Amino acid sequence: MNTHKKGRNRMGERIIAIEGGHKLNGTVRISGAKNATVALIPAAVLADGPVDLYGVPEISDVAALAVLLKELNCEVSIKGEHVRIDPTNMLDLPLVSEAVNKLRASYYFMGVLLGKYKKVQIRMPGGCYLGPRPIDLHLKGFEALGAKITYEDDTYTLEAEELVGANIYLDFASVGATINIMFAAVKAKGKTVIENAAKEPEIIDVANLLTKMGARIRGVGTDTITIEGVEELHGTFHEVIPDRIEAGTFLVIAAAAGEKVVVQNVIPQHLDALISKLKEMGIKMEIVADSIVVYGATEPLKPVNIKTQVYPGFATDLQQPLTTLLTQADGLSSVTETIYVERFKHCEQLNKMGAAITVGDSASLIAGPTPLHGARVMATDLRCGAALVVAALIAEGVTEITNVYHIDRGYDNIDHKLITLGAHIMRYEIEE
Ligand code: EPU
User: What's residue 432's pLDDT?
Assistant: First the structure.
């Protein structure tokens, strides 16, 4: 592979370069779920003793959360996929450093610190730009439990004399708001009912950890969650569920660039919507216990229409990588977004590689099949990065993907996993 190495200088940016056209074969093991992990780690501070998390993905979001835990004087040890969090000597301190801006999930410290100390000061959280991402539903939930909220200089202050259980109806079944309200309610006085709660598997995983810590939660996975407040929560251990979005990304990679790829450590039911769409396109798959065997396309793929929905509907996080596969289908496909209406930045990048995608109001139209060619493209957000990796694997020539920190926020050892399957991929620095 010609690396187009441009040397290293102070302005150098680390990129991923992929030479397309190599057929993938073999087995890939899916890591623990990012979007569960980024809530499980803050959840641990609600305990009075150590919490051991197993199957934690090695991603930069975990490192960023560890920085926040250390700022709160928690002990954190990360040994591969095992993370131990000991909040025994934790201090009630404001979270106002740059680290808060590194990820969206820092907002979970609002719920847990409010629940633990009845008080929290925290900067506005960061994360991928997917269009406006308000947190009004989180705040309304905290207010319903008794918190007073002020916002000044980019920082929220939440305070409550006491937290008292309440009935909270979410106008939208938000993943973040559902989890954050659970966090604030587990130690509140009396009963909290969250109606129109989100049902994503990550929420069930977080509730499972809280229950092992001593919380009393019922109805998770349905749209009504009931929480009876308890006085104390204790340390425990927990294994993170497999990442359904990483698994979905590898199903798409296998469909696009594979011959026979086994995607291992998955809960197939979590992927029902994607599996249906891949089958509709003509992809052949076999489900064997916790593995899915994917056979790369041999016939022209059929176009399909996708509409993103809350779980168990089609995941918004997967429409981006799937869009790349749709560029290879024979005809016109569409993607309609109902969760993040501006989540289409990947389309412009894919067009640089030869795709023919038009983006309208909350929807894209993908005209296929279009051969893709290598180019320098930018991962504008995490799942855009995934879409570009899929594209690079099937493109003619070398694709250079910049802003790879987005990809590293959510994909555990993606280079190594792809190399094991036979991809030609490397990282190097380029001049800006
Ligand atoms: N919303 C509001 N007000 C709120 C909260 C959400 O209007 O207070 C809106 C959002 O603007 C959005 C919709 O509700 O239009 C859904 O947002 P949700 O709160 O469900 O999303 P989130 O909790 O911020 C999580 C994942 C996202 C994933 C979404 C949807 C984490 C850390 N992030 O975000 O994951 O796309 O749920 O499933 O769990 C990713 O992994 O790439 C990613 C962005």
Answer: 66
Q: Give per-residue pLDDT as tens, 197-249.
A: 999 999 999 999 999 999 999 999 999 999 999 999 999 999 999 999 999 99
Hey, whose CA ends up nearest to atom 7 of ligand 1? 134
Closest C-alpha to 293, from 304, 284, 281: 284
Measured distance CA(257)–CA(7) in Å, rounded: 30
* Nearest partner of 358 among 391, 393, 333, 395, judged by Cα: 333
pLDDT tens by residue, 352-398 = 999 999 999 999 999 999 999 999 999 999 999 999 999 999 999 99
Residues counted in the chain? 432
- Any atom of ligand 1 within 6 Å of the Cβ of 203: no
- Residue 128 bears catalytic tag: yes
Among the listed residues 381, 392, 396, the one whose alpha carbon sits nearest the alpha carbon of residue 415: 392
Within a 13 Å sphere around the CA of 12, how many CA atoms are in the beta-carbon half? Answer: 13
Express the helix, strand and coil content of the chain in percent, nearest 5 each: 35, 30, 35
Name the 3-class secondary structure at 228: strand
Q: Is 62 within 8 Å of 83 (Cβ atoms)? A: yes
The answer to whether the CB of 409 is under 6 A from ligand 1 is no
Nearest in space to 197 (alpha carbons), one of 165, 229, 240, 226: 226
The DSSP bridge pattern shows strands 424-430 and 13-19 to be: antiparallel
Atom of ligand 1 nearest to the CA of 310: 38
- DSSP assignment of 360-376 equals ETTEEEEEE----B--E
Distance CA 200, CA 202 (A): 5
In which residue ranges of the chain is pLDDT below 70? Answer: 1-11, 127-129, 432
134 lines ligand 1 (CB under 6 A): yes
Instruction: From 35, 100, 318, 383, give the residue whose CB has the most ligand 1 atoms within 8 Å, as the site to mutate.
Output: 35
Please choose from 128, 174, 200 the residue to mutate so as to test ligand 1's pocket, defined by most ligand atoms within 8 A of CB.
Answer: 174
**Integer CA distances (angstroms), 407 to 94, 209, 241, in order:** 29, 27, 20
Confirm or reject: Cβ of 277 under 6 Å from ligand 1: no
Ligand 1 pocket, 333 CB below 6 A?
A: no
- Answer whether 0.70 is exceeded by the pTM: yes
For residue 94, what are the contacts with CB-CB under 8 A and spacing of at least 6?
120, 121, 122, 155
